[in-house]
């Protein structure tokens, strides 16, 4: 039996929700919905959480979400499950949470408005040098407050996710950077003009927070939720910075609510752009709706508007005129400045030609190019190489065929001699196995194979046809008159069979037709490619080669000449940790740029520069040469674990070569892993539990954080010295210490987890 809850006229757009879940699941959780003080040991699945949230919908709004959803112990336990880094059973997870705080008491405090957010804040004071940016103090939530923030995020996701526009990316499940790039590559046709909206770097102040809360209140009638959001902004836990480069990168200073609240704030703009796109599509209908007309008219170019928004990065593309793009830009900028009260950097928000100029979006370069640039035809050298390879295959095939015939002849003679010898020695004695039939079957199968090969060879058929038809004196009239009629009829029948089976004329005609068909198809493909190049434009996505090379030089992978060099700061780490750090940076770069046209350049940087920088670092640590390090670790950088078995964390050369645009995941950028070093300390501090969320291992080691900008004494705002677009971890965490177990320190080095996944109250300040 299925319970169906249909909510009509949702979001004032005629959207309806259909919530379906099994009666068994809902009956198991119905008591949770009614009695929030009951002890909970099971987190909710997604369908149960959706049913719980949508149950609070009435007359176009959601009511009392904090009281009836966020504060429930089952929802808080689900938030703990999302934050937990280890796959535990629900009972084990509940025990781990209960040893830190009581979920029932926490839910009661939230429901009654007594939850003290200020007491759950951990403040870090920046002690950066004068050359660096003087950041204000950093405020991070402890694990208990993180659970509340995650519970609010889950509820807001159910409320808003289906309401957001289809081109709204970031902070949504399955809607990340790579999804946006794939949309641009696969859906945008004939882009002519585009512009990227740039914001002046500013933080959300009180006025914008009030406006954001007003947008939330349009759909959610819950004063307690609005008050919590305002307190998170007031205490500095929730900060939204527009125009920066720290959003969506896994930095610890980014709150879990930032992404979804940015999407809520820009949702009005998304709806306006969506309406403009629909109006433009209705203004320019496609002429001819039949299949033949729609596929044959390759010269038709519809005027379309495309838009992609990833958090605060907005890209608008048009296939129309520049005047149309200018009007569109004016309307969007007016909405941002007047309705949303945002400061737009008009100098950098300029219109560019999609054909002649590249544009930087989501850390990659975009440009409109003909299809032949993305899928170039084979060069003459490649064609010659392919023909040479085909000739080599034919020669090898002929050699194998001749060897098979020779072996078959030798084996047949041996079998024939053996059978003849047995028959002579038998003196009339009959074999039980009837060897004659077996030999006959073998010879018959061989004969059929030989005939198939013979009939498939035009040269052999031509040769035998010429031998059997030359000197046909029996066709002369004065000769035929002197011969018996039976002989003449037999000869004529034989000639008919020879012409029927061996005449190469029919086979030659088939081969000529096949060659002609191949040539016509090649000419047709060439014509289609030429027409496409003249009438169609595609999106080319490229990795920023100069910025990537500047980044590897800034970190220390290469010297001024662009050659690999060791990183001295890493020699204090264990060998496996050094390799894991290099592997984490390399794999993140490979995953992030896998959708780029110049992916080969990134492969070279990882497979050559980073690999040999790691080898040189290991050689520097042990005072050996590069050759000795390669001999010991191999080029695949294999290292032995505690049990003596070899591990390979760094991608091998073959693995890098086989990588391509087949991965649909959405990895975070490399900025956090690249700019962070964790150095192991020899400390006499008492044992601490692991700082990873809900990890209870006490066999930890203390590590000190070293940030790249503090180590190099560079201000990240200085684009001449720093890499433009590369984010940084807040400098207040520099030289702070963190206890981590062996599993989670390995995950940090490999880039699987970030400092967002640790409990901020676990930081230790050791001098």
TrEMBL record:
**GO MF entry, a single one:** RNA-directed DNA polymerase activity
Q: Name one GO cellular component term.
A: mitochondrion
Annotated signal sequence range = none
Q: Which Pfam families match?
A: Intron_maturas2
GO terms under biological process: homing of group II introns; mitochondrial mRNA processing
Question: Where in the numbering of this chain does the Domain X domain appear?
Answer: 548-643
Q: Which PANTHER family match?
A: COX1/OXI3 INTRON 1 PROTEIN-RELATED, COX1_OXI3 INTRON 1 PROTEIN-RELATED
Q: What is this protein called?
A: Domain X
Q: Which organism is it from?
A: Arabidopsis suecica
**Source taxonomy lineage?**
Eukaryota, Viridiplantae, Streptophyta, Embryophyta, Tracheophyta
